[in-house]
Amino acid sequence: MRNKSIILLLSFVIVCAMASVRMPVPQPKKAKKVKGNVIAVDSLLRGNAGNDEKKVEGNAQDTTKMDSLQLAIYHHNKAIDDSIRADSIMKSRSNGINSPVTYSAQDSLVYDASTGTAYLYGGSKVDYENMKLASDKVFMNLDSSLVRATGTPDSTEEGGIKGKPLFTMGKDEYKSDTMAFNFKSKKGLIKGVYTAQQDGFLSGEVGKRDSTGVIYLQHGRYTTCDDPHPDFYIALSRAKVRPGKDVVFGPAYLVVADIPLPLAIPYGFFPFSKKYSSGFIMPNYGDESNRGFYLRDGGYYFAISDKWDLKLLGEIYTKGSWGLSAASNYRKRYRYSGSFLFSYQDSKTGDKGLPDYSEQESFKIQWNHRQDPKANPYSSLAASVNFATSSYERNNLNSLYNPQTLTQSTRTSSVSWSTNFSSIGLSLSATTNLSQNMRDNTIQMTLPDLNISLSRFYPFKRKHAVGKERWYEKVSMSYTGQLSNSITTNEDKLLHSNLFKDWRNGFQHTIPVQANFTLFNYINVTPSFNFVDRMYSKKVNRSWDATHQTEVKDTTYGFHNIYNWSMSVGASTKLYGFWKPSRKLFGDKIQAIRHVITPQISFSYSPNFGSRHYGYYDSYQYTDASGNVKLVEYSPYQEELYSVPGKTKTEMISWDVSNNLEMKIKSDKDSTGFKKISLIDELGATMSYNAATNFHRWSDLSVRLRLKWWKNYTFSMNAQFATYAYELDASGKPYVGNHTEWGYGRLPRFQGMSQNFSFTLNPEKLRKWFGHKDDKDDNKVSEGSDGPDTNIESNMDDDLEKGKYAAKKKRGNIAETDENGYMRFNMPWSLTIGYGITMRENTGGKFNTKTMRYPYKFTQTLNISGNIRISDGWNINFSSGYDFENHAMSMTTASLSRDLHCFNMSASVVLAPYTSYNFTFRCNASTLTDALKYDKRSGITRTIQWY
Question: pLDDT tier at 454 (50, 70, 90 boundaries)?
Fold first, then answer.
């Protein structure tokens, strides 16, 4: 019994001992990848996790050595430990953030572990995803994802605060006094917010930002002025800002120069869309003396695509006038670009039912098209169309205040297409031309004007030349063909004209053949032959109706061909003469004077195409009321496009002499040491003699002179001298006889000359004239300058002193200063004077029988224009002239503009021949230019009342 008790006691001790021993933990197997949520280990917990792993590895136990009881206990404990660990990690993740937070501070960084808050001081920066925050002070709580930022009071900084918070999220940037922001919810509370939105700037006392990025402002401001203290702003009681889209606000009023104005609106919005979008266009309002009050230039803009758009505008007046316009721009990169405008106006003036009532319909078409040269190097299309009825500009309000447009007498339009075939030297072009005379309402139109040309080629040139070039290989020829269809009529009859009866058409062929030879190595001889053929579709025969005593025209339609030819030969050479002046008299400055004479002589011949066998001319006889029989010669083709060949034989000998005089002098400024000066650029004369005529064989003498004494101005003058003298008929009236002036012992009669002179004067030219140094010497500080001697040992910065004194002379982005350091006075201006004079014989004046001369008549024109820039913001422009014939001022205008930073003010006046004024004050920003503006215009009258 005692032995049994001892055995039981020992067994119990062994069981207890085995139960108290720590169970060995075997090393776990490699876990498989699990699809679904992946639990990441936080960086803050990664240190503890590493220690636990080391312990596990150190105490790893082999489960193969365990019995069933030990293995069950092991799996149970492991499952509990894993669940507790996962719960702690998820709990930490639920209150954390989704990506790393990068933060730094220039001064110090304090971390409070108990609250999980980091305190950053001095130049603090926090970056999280696409959000960046910079401030002098930042308090950041990692558990709540809340960040607070504020500046530090500092009297030396602007506004008394140093390092104000600057928050950037994507492309949006916000400046504020204080800021609280939640990185996780992306919500924030901002005090003293300031942000830029497209062309404008928004600020508010308090702003809240929601998770979508919308900002709600209280007591805000909106302005387009970029100054911290804006010149103007719109005070917003409350506003909702959608960045990049728009601002919607409640009651608002305008404040200018910190003065509230009685201009308030209950609500409104400003679009901020950067996309290419459509929208309404606000109209202009005002009054006009003849048509009443108006709303104009209002409509809708269609952003159809990135390649073209459409703008529809309208205008309406209280007295019944109205108008519509459509404008479009189109562009395709590397292909073409252009614009189109159509405008229609129905203008009504006066009161309906009264004699002064009138109604006019007018329209205008403008089209500009340009093809990119890269689109097609062999073909191009270009258009410049500017067509308007004569009454359009008189009824267009914008033209009334534009003197150049209102006084324009001629409009031209053209559309052209061209292509070429370089392989054969052939080019083809088609053009439509339109010319309008706005004074008499006439139109000259060519539709089409087709040109075909074949470049010069040498038909006798050998393909495989051996030896010297033969004389016949120098013969060349070319071809030019022109097909035209033209009409000259009134603008209201253009669309009612008949293509065959009213239009003139024809086809002309020109074939020139020429060659170039050199005789005796010095004389160039150029023979030529020219053939011209014309094809017409009609001709007009004329006869005399004795019953009605009038000329009768009979037009016949069909194919009619006429031609003419001519030939000529010319010779020219150059003669050089040199003269070296005596050094005893002129010194060694003048090296030589060169005289170049270029004489030319030519002979041309063309037969008389007025002979009957050609059929180009005809005649008829008639008896006038006095019983005299008269013969009238005419050509059935004289009214056609390309006229008709001449009816006189030509055997013309022409000569021309041109002289050039140059002087070569020594010059230190030229790299060669010499400089050429033009004394006479050209002095020439030309004259001809026709041996085939019996009357006035000599032509008039033409003399030309050109001088280039100045770099930017060339003096040129042409004069005519008559060869044949005036004679008196039986009644004492003068006529040009068949006797020459030198036959009476007189020089050729001076017929007249013309000369135009234009000169621009500005401060730069004045400084150059009065010894202003070149800009290349501005950077150099001469030894005798007023600046300090930097070679003397001192504590001065040599480079700084040299730069300072050089800046006094050099004009750059920095204001120019004088020797005392004060800003140099500078007022840019320019004055342009244009003067023209024409001297001609006044055949309408009284003839002097003693000198056998008519008196001379002078026609003079004087134009003056200029501009003055009073300061950086003030500009004055003016233009005027004097009409010497009417002894009155010509068109006189003046304009004044002032750049007011955020606004622009401009005023223009017309003083002659009529008077008017125009005043405009508007905001510079495109967002508010149509909303914040003021226009004041006068009527067009000669009795304007200035006030």
Answer: very high
What distance, in Å, lies between the first and last C-alpha atoms of the chain?
Answer: 142
83 exposure class (CB count in 10 Å sphere: 0-12, 13-18, 19+) = exposed
**How far, in Å, CA of 863 to CA of 512, rounded?**
45
Amino acid identity for residue 906 in this structure:
S
- Tell me the pLDDT of the chain averaged across its residues: 80
Dist. CA 787–CA 804, nearest whole Å: 9
**pLDDT tens per residue, range 214-231:** 889 898 888 888 887 888
Which segments within 70-187 are labelled E, that is strand?
Answer: 101-104, 108-112, 117-128, 131-141, 146-150, 152-153, 161-162, 166-169, 172-175, 178-182
**Alpha carbon separation from 206 to 202, 404, 626, 741 (Å, rounded):** 12, 54, 105, 98
Amino acid in position 610: G
Angle subtended at Cα 944 by Cα 939 and Cα 947, rounded to the nearest 5 degrees: 100
Specify which residues 345 forms β-bridges with. Answer: 323, 362
Q: Do 462 and 473 form a contact (C-beta atoms < 8 A)?
A: yes
Query: Nearest-5° angle of CA 712, CA 754, CA 716?
Result: 30
Structure tokens at 209: 């930002």
Give the contacts of 591 (CB within 8 A, at least 6 positions apart): 580, 664, 665, 666, 674
**Closest C-alpha among 823, 827, 826, 805 to residue 815:** 823
User: Which pair of structure tokens corresponds to residue 403?
Assistant: 């003197």
DSSP structure string for 525-550 = EEEEEEEEEEEEEEEEEEEEETTTTE
> Helix, strand, or coil here: 122?
strand
Contact 630, 705 (CB under 8 A): no
Element holding 766 (H helix, E strand): helix 763-769
> Which whole-number Å values give the CA distances from 133 to 192, 228, 625, in the listed order?
16, 21, 107
Residue among 232, 201, 262 at smallest CA distance from 904: 232
Q: 0.70 exceeded by the pTM? A: no
Question: d(Cα 147, Cα 296) in Å, to the nearest integer?
Answer: 53
Lowest mean pLDDT among 88-102, 230-244, 736-750: 88-102
pLDDT digit string, tens, across residues 496-540: 787 777 888 899 999 999 999 988 889 999 999 999 999 998 888
Query: How long, in residues, is the chain?
Result: 947
Joined tokens for residue 194: 């300031």
The answer to whether the CB of 926 falls within 8 A of the CB of 411 is: no
Between CA 365 and CA 359 the distance in angstroms is 21
Q: Percent of the chain, pLDDT > 90?
A: 19
Q: Coil, strand, or helix at residue 76?
A: helix
Please, what is the Cα angle at 570 between 565 and 571, to 5 degrees? 170
d(CA 431, CA 579): 54
